[in-house]
Write a structure and sequence with these properties.
The chain starts with about 40 loop residues before the first helix and ends with a helix. By secondary structure, it is an all-alpha fold. It folds into 2 domains: about 170 residues, serine acetyltransferase, domain 1 (Orthogonal Bundle); about 40 residues. Helix 5 crosses helix 6.
Length: about 240
């Protein structure tokens, strides 16, 4: 049974502001990529690159994540930019990288950032959409988000989603693909601990008498003797080589 999206009220009025936040003063406005502006192959290449950066994020822009079939359809104008973005979000590579690594709440946060270009309004919005993931599945949730009025109004069919409001925060493209929930479930490496006489402790001051008393001088002498023999051998080998030459 598919439940309707729960009603939630935005806790911020930023969505009513047309500017891009504090970065406007630095001239760091987002570059907007529209399919109608891509008049040649290089323009389409830039649009596709921007789409991958928006959906897959900076850390996942790798060659084996590319969706060649979708790219070909977009280049031939067989699908819209919205369909291309939808296909990237529903791809197996995105599912294995992002969806399987997060709980529903974080998936909603990432999807709103990457597909709608803004931060979630509040916890109520996160809960409302997480219920949609639980009932519709990931694919149905992506459809519900991208077929909604907000996406249509902000980007339509021909524009690559972009971060519409920064307000001094880090760009969405630097949001890690997984959070603490996934990170803490991973096996943690065991710190290396030396054993035997060579245990190292750095919580005490160096004491020369203790060092001289606890050092195995037989091993030290043997090591020095090996080093001397190695040097003599190398010197002799060098002399023989030069004489033969």
């Amino acid at each position: 049974m598919i439940l309707p999206v729960l009603k939630y009220n935005p806790s911020t009025q930023n969505q009513r502001v047309q500017s891009f936040g504090t970065v406007d003063t630095n001239g760091d406005l987002p570059v907007i990529y529209r399919l109608e502006d891509a008049t040649d192959s290089s323009g389409v290449d830039e649009l596709i690159h921007a789409a991958y950066r928006q959906v897959f994020n900076e850390q996942e822009m790798l060659r084996f994540n590319r969706q060649i079939a979708l790219e070909t359809q977009l280049r031939n104008r067989a699908i819209s930019v919205r369909d291309f973005i939808r296909g990237l979000a529903k791809s197996e590579r995105f599912y294995s990288l992002v969806v399987e690594s997060n709980d529903n709440i974080r998936l909603v946060e990432l999807a709103i950032k990457r597909l709608l270009g803004r931060n979630p309004y509040n916890q109520e919005e996160l809960i409302a959409w997480s219920i949609q993931i639980a009932t519709r599945g990931w694919s149905g949730f992506v459809d519900a988000l991208m077929d909604g009025d907000e996406y249509a109004t902000a980007f339509g069919d021909g524009t690559v989603p972009y971060q519409r409001k920064r307000m001094g925060d880090r760009p969405h493209s630097f949001t890690p693909r997984y959070g603490a929930y996934y990170r803490d479930r991973q096996p943690q490496p065991h710190p290396y601990t030396p054993v035997g006489r060579f245990n190292l402790t750095f919580d005490q001051d160096f004491d020369l008498q203790t060092f001289l008393r606890t050092t195995n001088w037989v091993r030290v002498s043997g090591l020095l003797l090996l080093l001397v023999l190695a040097c003599v051998f190398l010197l002799g080998f060098g002399v023989l080589t030069s004489s033969a030459g």
